[in-house]
C-alpha cells in the first residue's frame, strides 16, 4: 500500500510539473511576443459599408 502511494505521488508530481512548466513557458512567451496588429487597410477591409440613404 505504501509503495502504491509513493508511485501515485511520484507520477502525479511529474504530471503537475509538466503542467506548471507549460503554464510558465506560455506566460513568458506572451510577455515578450507582441500580438499581431492589423494595418489601417486591413481594418477598413473588414468593415461593412455605411448606408447613407436612410440619413
β content, as a range?
A: under 5%
- Low-confidence spans: none
Give me the Rg, rounded.
26 Å
Structural class: mainly alpha
Per DSSP, the total helix count is 2
Total strand segments: 0
Query: How would a textbook summarize the main sheet?
Result: none
- In quaternary terms, these chains amount to single chain
Could you characterize what this model shows?
There is one protein chain. The chain is 67% helix and 0% strand. The longest helix is centred in the N-terminal third of the chain and has 31 residues, at 2-32. The model has no long low-confidence stretch (mean pLDDT 93). The protein has 55 residues and is mainly alpha-helical. It has a domain at 1-32. The relative contact order is 0.06. It is elongated, with a radius of gyration of 26 Å.
Features:
mainly alpha; about 65% helix
Task: Please sum up the structure shown.
The protein is mostly helical and about 55 residues long. The protein contains 2 helices and no strands.
Outline the secondary-structure elements.
Blueprint: H1 2-32, H2 40-45
Amino acid at each position: 500500500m505504501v509503495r502504491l502511494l509513493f508511485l501515485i505521488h511520484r507520477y502525479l508530481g511529474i504530471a503537475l510539473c509538466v503542467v506548471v512548466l507549460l503554464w510558465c513557458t506560455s506566460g513568458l512567451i506572451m510577455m515578450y511576443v507582441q500580438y499581431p496588429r492589423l494595418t489601417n487597410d486591413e481594418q477598413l477591409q473588414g468593415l461593412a459599408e455605411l448606408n447613407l440613404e436612410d440619413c
